[in-house]
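Structure first, sequence second, as always.
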């Protein structure tokens, strides 16, 4: 069988970016320009300009965000869970070096402190230089604290509690592998407040079969409430899942009235997420239950 190369590939004199979606399928995207390419201590970092999705950040040949639709990913990741918490004051983001999740978290006026723990400082530097439209100044917000550290080490050593913890790490590759374990979720729960919520990006339903099932299964060993939702991300060519665990709050059981009230109270300004989208995510997940079984 012919082995297909991932990443930048020349085909008939033109440059394309190839990325595996499943063992039997790849995406092939025509490249307009290579904006940046370099290796950090941890991974290959690339910023590629495509014709259809604009600037895109790739880590070890895995698409992280694209200019045209990163707001769909970040707003869907952050707001359903933040809205479900009555007063999220202290937030921890593990990973998220592109600053998009931090940007959305800081839209909530209840937030007094948001700590972002990123293992690879070079990711932040590259994004600030080449893709500043993603963080939009979030790194400089006085409520933000940026910690360059391994997420596992930070969680083990930190001596404070958080209301919401986001795991915005890369796919289950490279430096993120130790974070997709029940042991890590357990020590993370130890620094959650009594009403706290842990939420993680739970990978592509088509690209990573079985990942959502494993994550929710691990969460159920620790939390009374475990649920998920998913949204289609065009540049990922996948329905992307988000899983959360809590002992108090369930974002997927809120009413439209409840979501609308908090959305209005917090004066949120979003491009994709709305109270009706929140409710739509609740209904859509009912069609995806098979991914919890196979």
């Amino acid at each position: 069988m012919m082995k297909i190369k991932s990443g930048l590939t020349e085909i008939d004199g033109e440059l394309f970016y190839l990325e595996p979606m499943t063992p039997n399928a790849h995406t092939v995207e025509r490249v307009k320009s290579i904006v940046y390419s370099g290796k950090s201590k941890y991974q290959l970092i690339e910023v590629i300009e495509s014709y259809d999705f604009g600037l895109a950040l790739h880590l070890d040949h895995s698409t992280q965000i694209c200019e045209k639709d990163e707001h769909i990913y970040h707003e869907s990741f952050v707001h359903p869970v933040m809205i479900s918490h009555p007063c999220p004051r202290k937030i921890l983001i593990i990973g998220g070096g592109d600053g998009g999740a931090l940007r959305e978290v800081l839209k909530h006026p209840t937030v007094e402190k948001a700590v972002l723990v990123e293992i690879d400082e070079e990711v932040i530097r590259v994004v600030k230089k080449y893709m500043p439209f993603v963080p939009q100044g979030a790194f400089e917000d006085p409520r933000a604290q940026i910690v360059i550290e391994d997420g596992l080490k930070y969680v083990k050593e930190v001596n404070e509690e958080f209301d919401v913890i986001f795991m915005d790490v890369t796919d289950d590759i490279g430096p993120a592998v130790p974070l997709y374990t029940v042991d890590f979720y357990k020590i993370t729960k130890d620094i959650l407040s009594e009403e706290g919520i842990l939420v993680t990006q739970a990978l592509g339903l088509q690209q990573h079969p079985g990942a959502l099932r494993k994550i929710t299964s691990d969460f159920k060993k620790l939390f009374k409430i475990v649920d998920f939702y998913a949204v289609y991300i065009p540049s990922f060519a996948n329905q992307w899942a988000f899983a959360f665990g809590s002992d108090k709050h369930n974002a997927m059981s809120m009413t439209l009235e409840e979501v609308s009230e908090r959305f209005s109270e917090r004066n949120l300004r979003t491009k994709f997420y709305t109270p009706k989208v929140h409710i739509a995510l609740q209904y859509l997940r009912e069609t995806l239950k098979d991914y919890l079984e196979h």
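Margin note: The mean pLDDT is 92.
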